[in-house]
User: Fold this.
Amino acid sequence: MLYDLTILSLLPNTLGAVIPLLPKTYENFSKTGTPLGCFSCEFGVLNRFAFLTQYDDAGKLAEERARLMQTENPYGIGAYLGGVTSTAFKPLSFAQPIVPGEYGPFYEIRTYTIAPGGLPETEEAWSKVIPRRNEMSMLLTIMGSVEGGPQKMVHIWPYKTIEDRVKARGQASKEGIWPPPGGSAKLTSLQSELFVATAFSGLK
Assistant:
């Protein structure tokens, strides 16, 4: 199983025109994958939407990538797009399958860059504390990129409220499990952004 995380960046002052079109964009986002969620960036680089899609295997993902390259305006909002980035990820060994449901509406998407060859060591360290951390607040998924360029590790945490996030992270820090002991040695950069699930998203 693979996941694709695609970020659509809008041109300035186009949000009002795009919002009514997004449900159709989400519904037709992939011909070979299963759309899981669509999220609007609330804190971070604004006017961006994150689309999370599941693929059964690399062949299905490659088929969709080929379709996108041959399709004019594949997302239906081409006139308003300022940029598109897509990255394929493989879930880490201890990640649970993503099941659509109401876990948010807030979704923190944390993107870490990993030093070359550093993912196995990072995965091992994190695997020791994630079960306990998951008791404090749900981990939706954690995954490593499988495409060229610096390797990324993305983990996504849904929260009902911002206060829930503060409470869970504070408790994890108090118990000494966060950041995961030994889990930062191979990290080269860290980014955190807060997204909000759209009304039509499978993950709400």
Notes: Helices lie at 15-18, 22-27, 58-70, 119-127, 130-136, 162-174. Strands lie at 2-10, 34-43, 48-55, 81-91, 106-114, 141-145, 151-159, 187-197. The first strand starts at residue 2 and ends at 10.
